[in-house]
Amino acid sequence: MTFPHYFEFFGHRVHPHPVMEGTAYAVALATRWAIGRWRGVDGRDEHSVEQRLWQVAGAVMGALVGAKLLAWAENWRAVVQASSTLGLEAWIGGKTIVGGLAGAWAGVEIAKRATGVTDRTGDAWVYPLCVSMAIGRVGCFLTGLSDDTYGVATRLPWGVDFGDGIRRHPTQLYESVFMLLLAAGLALWQWRSRIGWRTGRVFRVFMLCYCAWRFCVEFIKPTDKWIGGLSVIQVFSLGVCAYCLYALRPGANARGLPAPILAGEAKS
Q1: Contact, 94 vs 68, CB < 8 A?
Q2: Each residue of 171-218: pLDDT tens digit?
Q3: Is the dihedral of CA 46, 48, 52, 54 positive or negative?
């Protein structure tokens, strides 16, 4: 296989990243719509059109800001060096999923607080996120070296040569597999615990697991480890994990929900 692995559409070569990202967004929206239809968690009865639009705006803006800020912090040396020759272009490129997820979460919470929404809305987005991230990482893999999401060199038989003669960990595919396993595990846990869709617990466990995964997988990525032997993403992921553990502590109650729901006793 050659990298980037272009797709052919009507005789034209198309870069894999926008193809897989577009597919990921479409599948995520379709999955979220299906969950809303199946479990009645689309929020139409509880939230006004204005409230829903503000939540969408908060998620989009928060994701953009969070993804860029963490990417800049992670690669600040390279960005500063490149800015001398590339100018503004050096600051435009690059983003990170961890920052995007955390930023979207913060943006939605700010929008909900501003518009008076008190219920939890993240649980129904967990499975769409898992599936879309699994698809999106395939796009990162097909892009090859220029995506900067590959792992360090390895002698393992499944190491991938992205075009420079060095076999590396295909960490993009590792993450795709992890996200599908995480979705399956969360679904089984939610079903067996009979946890509803408005407790906020499923989303927090999702964020906890994903950030714990990113903390671990970053050890086999060629990133700068200059904060006590950890990268910026690892330190940030630890902070998100700590917050999620605090939010999931025994006795922590979601806004407007009785304690039995958080204990997994709600009818789902």
Answers
A1: yes
A2: 999 999 999 999 999 999 999 999 888 899 999 999 999 999 999 999
A3: negative
Q: Does residue 260 have a cis peptide bond before it, meaning omega lies within 30 degrees of 0?
A: no
pLDDT single digits (tens) 88-133: 444 556 789 999 999 999 999 999 999 998 888 899 999 999 999 9
Quote the CA–CA distance of 190 and 105 in Å, as a whole number: 21
Q: In angstroms, rounded to a whole number, what is the distance separating the alpha carbons of residues 153 and 178?
A: 20
- What is d(CA 148, CA 223) in angstroms, rounded to the nearest whole number? 9
pLDDT of residue 45: 55
* Residues 252, 107: Cα–Cα separation, whole Å: 22
Contact 164, 145 (CB under 8 A): yes
Spatial separation of the C-alpha atoms in residues 13 and 221, rounded to whole Å: 29
CA–CA gap between residue 138 and residue 175 (Å, rounded): 9
